[in-house]
Amino acid sequence: GIIVVATVLWIVLRILGGGLRQIRFVTRTTPLQRAVAGLSDIEKQNLPPVAALPLAADIIRRYLAERFDIPATEQTTAELLQSVGEWMPSQRQRQLSQLLNQADLAKFAQHQPDNDLSEKVISFGIKWLRAIDGLSAAMEVTGHE
Known about the structure:
Layout: H1 2-21, H2 31-45, H3 49-68, H4 77-84, H5 90-108, H6 115-142
Helix pairs in contact: 2-3, 2-6, 3-5, 3-6, 4-5, 5-6
């Protein structure tokens, strides 16, 4: 009886032990870290603004969806601005509107923006994301979210 139990225990530990050695540690990144990294990647690729601006807008929308649990990736710009209107300060709303509208112009209106515009938009987008993330962290601490 004891030999059977010991053998079963040994087999279980071997199986688990082998599995434990294969566990990889995955570092968890925040929505802000992913968004900033994504915008930085776009900037490094030197894409034309007609490609870079819509990609940047998608990253900002994904950030808003992940961070604030809103369907930002499924909404039009107008719908998104309306959904953040209840809690986002008006200055940040205007800035978001400008960022998304630049991307919409490049994507849908065959607007050919200057090459330096995408660099400016991406740089500003990173600052905007950090400001919004800081605002939301402060709201969570005070319990206003």
